[in-house]
Amino acid sequence: MVVQGVSTRKVEAITVELCGAEFSKSTVSALCSGLDPLVSAWNERDLSPRKYPFLIVDALVIRVREDGRVRQCSALIASGVNEEGYREVLGLQIGDSESEASHDAQAHQRSELFVWLKKRGLNGVDLVTSDDHAGLVAAVKKQFQGASWQRCQTHFSRNVLDVAPEKERAALKARLHRIFWAADPDEARRELVETVSLFSATAAKAMDRLEAGFEDVTAVLSLPERYRKRLRTTNGMERLNEEMRRRERVIRIFPNRASAGRLLGALHDECWSTGKVYLDMTEYWQWREAQQQAREKGAPESALIAV
Question: Which of 60, 87, 104, 168 could disulfide-link 75, Cβ–Cβ 3.0 to 4.6 Å?
Fold first, then answer.
């Protein structure tokens, strides 16, 4: 009942009604702690049997009671698409929120997440999709050499439009769509040049932000077209986050980090255990093989871009 989002108070009422026995809050908590070995085994499982070309990282801010006060913490969630095209939640860690941690501390948290995943056998990462979390880009470059970082286009669009004049936002949003959905990086750059030319006088701050983030927000265009839609944003994790929020609203404040990890961990596998293929990876592996052959022949980098 707790995992499904029933409050401790309601658990007490339900058990009295159905069983004629009353369970105190402490008893309910003690029973829930029986989930710990299961969640720990899932969160520490061996990842080495498969490759995970696509990694998606997201963060969810939760409230936890620590040292006599309520603190904001960040639940870092890593999911991946394995070599057979199935999605998996690879693991989660509870750390300080971005508002409470310094830039260096945030960078360390991201790097520690990747180190932990690699120790568990994560390999074959080709693209990491996330929002612009502090320190994440450096951590990707350090821990997954050769992989690209795809900045979430949904969050990036909001960041650009937020600093644009209101009267320009509709037109600018349409131009951003043309950049993001370009056929290849060259076309995206042509769209960028046109967009900057059109809005540099009326939305200078937005254009500065767009140019600064262009390479990261269009990294996905180097992949075959069929994979771009689901990897260009972190939106694929929305249902998972909604389920987490639904339970978290009932609890409001977790009594400690262990309880937060217990409940959130218990939800992850439940939400994505559909057994359905998320991406057909056949074309991806053919593309990777063609890339390797082209590199061996000394082909220029532009010839390796998928269209």
Answer: 60
Exposed e or buried b per residue across 72-98, where buried means at least 16 C-beta atoms within 10 angstroms of its C-beta: ebbbbbbbbbbeebbbbbbbbbbbebb
Written as six digits, the tokens of 52 are: 């995970």
Quick check: 141 and 162 in contact, CB under 8 A? Answer: no
Strand partners, 150: 129
Asked whether the beta carbons of 265 and 243 are under 8 A apart, the reply is no
Per-residue pLDDT of the chain (307 residues; tens, 9 = 90+): 777 777 777 777 888 888 888 777 778 778 888 888 989 999 999 999 999 999 999 888 889 998 889 998 888 899 999 999 999 999 999 887 765 555 666 667 778 999 999 999 999 999 999 998 767 788 888 899 889 999 999 999 999 999 999 999 999 999 999 999 999 999 999 999 999 999 999 999 999 999 999 999 999 999 999 999 999 999 888 777 787 787 777 778 888 888 888 888 887 756 555 578 999 999 999 999 998 888 888 766 555 555 4
**What are φ and ψ of residue 89, in 5° steps?**
-80, 115
Q: Which two tokens stand for residue 145?
A: 């050499």
Q: How far is CA 80 from the centre of its chain?
A: 9
Decide if 52 contacts 85 (C-beta within 8 A): no
Q: What is the DSSP letter of 3?
A: T
Q: How many CA atoms lie within 13 A of 296 on its CB side?
A: 6
Backbone angles phi, psi at 130, to 5 degrees: -165, 175
How many H-runs (helices) and E-runs (strands) does the chain carry?
Answer: 13, 5
Q: Could you give the CA distance from residue 242 to residue 125 in angstroms, rounded to a whole number?
A: 27
- How far apart, in whole angstroms, are the C-alpha atoms of residue 168 and residue 158? 13
Measured at the alpha carbon of residue 276, what is the angle toward residues 275 and 277, in degrees to the nearest 5?
125
